[in-house]
Amino acid sequence: MAASNFTTWFAYEKGMRLAKCVSQLARNRFPREEKYSLTDQIRRSSRSVCSNLAESFAKRVYPKHFAAKLTDAMGENYETQVWLQVALNEKYISEEVYQEYQAASEEVGRLLTFMHQNPHKFT
């Protein structure tokens, strides 16, 4: 059963929620000197998950292109996890906050993996 719009996909909904939370986290917890490095990078990668899902929807009639955009979304999600680890290492966030955001990112990752393994449900 193909969704009529990418915004109804669970991966999109969870990814958008994570991107919003990451943006707020970066704004409230990261130091000003990180504005053009860590803050910019983590915001871009978390937002790119959903933009790649939108592109995958547009390319869903071409299975290889659909899969490629899902792979891009997965890569951006993993990149977000790296930036969360950097924020933890720099002590911008606590272990508890890190675990919360890591778990949310892993959930997005599981949903993306399901989509990649079951493209017929989304194309």
Description:
The chain has 123 residues and is mainly alpha-helical. The protein has a single domain, classed as Up-down Bundle (de novo design (two linked rop proteins)), CATH 1.20.1440.60. Helices cover 74% and strands 0% of the residues. It starts with 9 loop residues before the first helix and ends in a 6-residue tail after the last helix. 33% of the residues are buried.
Element order, helices and strands?
HHHH
Helix content: over 70%
Write out the CATH superfamily name: 23S rRNA-intervening sequence
How many domains make up the coordinates?
A: 1
CATH architecture: Up-down Bundle
Percentage of residues in strands: under 5%
Number of helical stretches of at least 4 residues: 4
Low-confidence stretches: none
**Using DSSP, what is the number of strands?**
0
Radius of gyration: 15 Å
CATH class value: Mainly Alpha
The termini sit apart by: 8 Å
Q: Can you summarize the main beta sheet?
A: none
Mean pLDDT: 95
Name the overall outline.
elongated
* Overall SS class: mainly alpha
What is the CATH third-level topology name?
Answer: de novo design (two linked rop proteins)
Task: Write a concise synopsis of the structure shown.
With 123 residues, the chain is an all-alpha fold. The protein has a single domain (7-117), classed as Up-down Bundle (de novo design (two linked rop proteins)), CATH 1.20.1440.
Structural topology:
Blueprint: H1 10-29, H2 38-58, H3 63-89, H4 95-117
Helix pairs in contact: 1-2, 1-4, 2-3, 3-4
